[in-house]
């Protein structure tokens, strides 16, 4: 499955659609402005909230929390010793971890579970400006979760660049 994401140009508070490879709208990322912490909602085409994403308020390192139905699903934060590449760890509520690594600000990175590739985020195969693709490799993977992970990693990397 491949999804196309139009890059946010203005930051938090912007809403943007994620389309499938046929150009059909699939998910809406709804940025919530005027909040104490950075907050997003991933919605379906009917406006139903699938996933809530928010910044953890009291954490030593920038951390984003992903929730589904009010229940924690995952926590994402930068790995401590990642000097050469952007490297993030996603701790799933069930106790497993995903690894996000690559050139996140360039939209060239991968999401892996235990060394197995789950998704590739890339601009390489697209000719549309300010657009990147999320290619879900495993058919049994949760597309909404992987898109939420990509949104979080990009947001954290951009915040880190600003600081």
Brief synopsis:
This protein is mostly beta strands and 163 residues long. It has one helix at 143-162, and strands at residues 2-6, 15-20, 25-32, 39-43, 49-55, 63-68, 71-78, 86-92, 97-103, 108-113, 116-122, 131-136.
Describe this structure in words.
With 163 residues, the protein is mainly beta. It has a single domain (1-160), classed as Porin, CATH 2.40.160. Helix content is 12%, strand content 48%. The chain is built from 1 helix and 12 strands. It has a 12-stranded antiparallel beta barrel. β6 (63-68) and β7 form a beta hairpin.
pLDDT < 50 stretches: none
H and E order: EEEEEEEEEEEEH
Q: What's the CATH H-level homologous superfamily? A: LURP1-related
| Overall number of structural domains | 1
For this structure, the quaternary state is single chain
N-to-C terminal Cα separation, in Å? 35 Å
Give the overall form.
globular
Proportion of residues in helical segments? 10-25%
What name is given to the CATH topology?
Porin
Strand order, main sheet: write it out: 1-2-3-4-5-6-7-8-9-10-11-12
Question: Number of helical runs?
Answer: 1
Q: What's the architecture in CATH terms?
A: Beta Barrel
Which CATH C-level class is it? Answer: Mainly Beta
- Class by SSE composition: mainly beta
**What do the pLDDT scores average to?**
84
Rg, rounded, reads 15 Å
Query: Main β-sheet, in a few words?
Result: 12 strands, antiparallel, barrel
Number of strands: 12
Share of residues in strands: over 45%
